[in-house]
Amino acid sequence: MLLEVKNLNKSFGSVTAAKNINFKMNENDIIGVIGSNGAGKTTFCNIITGYLKADSGEILYQDRDITKFNVQEIKNIGIHRSFQIPQVFENLGVLENIIIAELVAKKKQHSFFEEAYTKENYDKAINLLERFSLDATKFKDKVVKELPQGARKILDILIAIIGTPKVILLDEPTSGISTEEKNIVMTNILKAIKEFNISVLFIEHDMEIVEQFSDRVVAFYNGEIIADGNPKEVFKQKNVQKYIVGSS
Ligand SMILES: Nc1ncnc2c1ncn2[C@@H]1O[C@H](COP(=O)(O)OP(=O)(O)OP(=O)(O)O)[C@@H](O)[C@H]1O
Ligand SMILES: [Mg+2]
To answer: Within a 10 A sphere around the Cβ of 101, how many other Cβ atoms?
Structure first.
């Protein structure tokens, strides 16, 4: 098993954000996570990635107990994530953002000034843009804040896969972008991620996107997983219809 979560619980005062969560993820899974606002989707990602500690429960990665690992340790073993809001340097160039992330992943951040912006590093960054289907001639000389929102989201996810994780958790990769752009963004992200053999879990509010791009759907409601399985089956379930599909 690649990733396994057992009996996870987390409360914030009187709010139960995770209630007895059990979840398994295999190699090459592409899992869509659905649930209305406040259902516990981000909390689930925060606990797996060490940003929050659960009140109880266990997290296993490749059968190893990582429940007590911190954010950096979890990243180092191969579980990466992206956030609802892109975590990029807005005032830096697109390529510079990628180069810095590469150096940080290799823990060379103290040597920026000597060797960051080499031709080799620029070429590698351009190659990554291309693997994510971002038009390098159009974007390579741009500062991040000049990018369209869709390209910025793709760049953010591209940066999150630097260091070649085995698992990536994407918190709303299509939030804030137009309906037309969502399909392009998801297609480009998933094509690149599959080429790197990374397993994906993505949180998404748009049910058409979930149905189109995931092999499995996990539905959250009030901190609980109320359905987990093949998209068509999950969408048919009464509680999913009542609490999620019908209310979004
Ligand atoms: N750090 C925190 N402190 C207190 N309450 C929190 C904290 N993080 C989350 N919560 C609460 O836990 C519940 C689950 O929140 P969470 O952010 O996981 O929901 P979500 O499913 O990601 O929602 P959305 O779709 O709006 O992003 C909510 O009631 C939220 O207010
Ligand atoms: Mg959230």
So the answer is: 22
What are 242's two structure tokens?
A: 């009542």
* Cα(231)–Cα(83) distance, integer angstroms: 24
Q: Report pLDDT digits (tens) over 206-222.
A: 999 999 999 999 999 99
Protein residues within 5 Å, CB atom, of ion ligand 2: 42
Give the distance, in angstroms, between the CA of residue 67 and the centroid of all CA atoms in the same chain.
19
3-state secondary structure (DSSP) of residue 37: coil
Q: How confident is the model at residue 248 (pLDDT cuts 50, 70, 90)?
A: low
The finding on whether 15 has its CB within 6 A of some atom of ligand 1 is: yes
φ, ψ of residue 229 to 5 degrees: the values are: 165, -160
Q: What count of other Cβ atoms lies within 10 Å of the Cβ of residue 215?
A: 12
69-106, pLDDT tens digit by residue?
Answer: 999 999 999 999 998 888 899 999 999 999 999 988 88
Which three-class secondary structure state does DSSP give residue 239? helix
- Single pTM value for the model: 0.94
Per DSSP, 21 falls in state: E
CB of residue 137 inside a 6 A radius of ligand 1: no
User: What structural domains and CATH numbers belong to the chain?
Assistant: 3-245 (3.40.50.300)
Taking a C-beta distance cutoff of 8 angstroms, is the pair 174, 206 a contact?
Answer: yes
Structure tokens that stand for 202 in this block: 């993505």
Which 3 state secondary structure label does DSSP give 11?
strand
Strand partners of residue 64: 61
42 lines ligand 1 (CB under 6 A): yes
- What is the reported pLDDT for 108? 62
